[in-house]
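User: Before I run my own analysis I want an independent prediction to cross-check against. Here's the chain; please return only the structure tokens and, at the end, one sentence I can use as a sanity check.
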Amino acid sequence: MVLPIVAYGDPVLRRVGKDINKDYPGLEELIENMKETMKNAQGVGLAAPQVGRDIRLFLIDASPFSENEELEEEERAFLKDFKQTFINARIVEEQGDEWAFNEGCLSIPNINEDVYRPEVIHVEYLDEDFTERQETLTGLAARIFQHEYDHIEGILFTDKLSSLKKRLLKKKLENISKGKVDVSYRMKFPNIKK
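Assistant: Structure tokens:
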């Protein structure tokens, strides 16, 4: 089932997610619904807060980036198969220079800005089967992970922008929270009077 994506301004996007265990109610169905929702919205990542759940869960499907001819062949091959569920994820270490990449977010539609993030991250998480995993991610894989990880920490990519950029985007962000935005997927807006 395609779930509505929570829009900028909803308090759930600012909460730090809670760890979950195998007994979390409806977890398997939630993960399947999130996969369907992410695909429907043409996203490469989706975190539980974006569908109204303040838990430490997010999904990544970086395969659309495998078509990017500007990337090295090796990175494109990795991204093609980088489809993963991350539960109770933690960034253990960040390394390398910060680099800029133009990011967007399904909860903040029609806004894209350059965000600086470290090049390499070492992460720990549980997969869909609750198997403990450790990985080192680089390049775009690291960036997508960091963006989704921020969601379970109550952080949005717009928080990482300069104060000038934030001021310039203020009206657009207010309009998103009021539902004054054109998107091709279902959204739930916090500031719409019923």
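Sanity check: DSSP finds four helices and seven strands in the chain.
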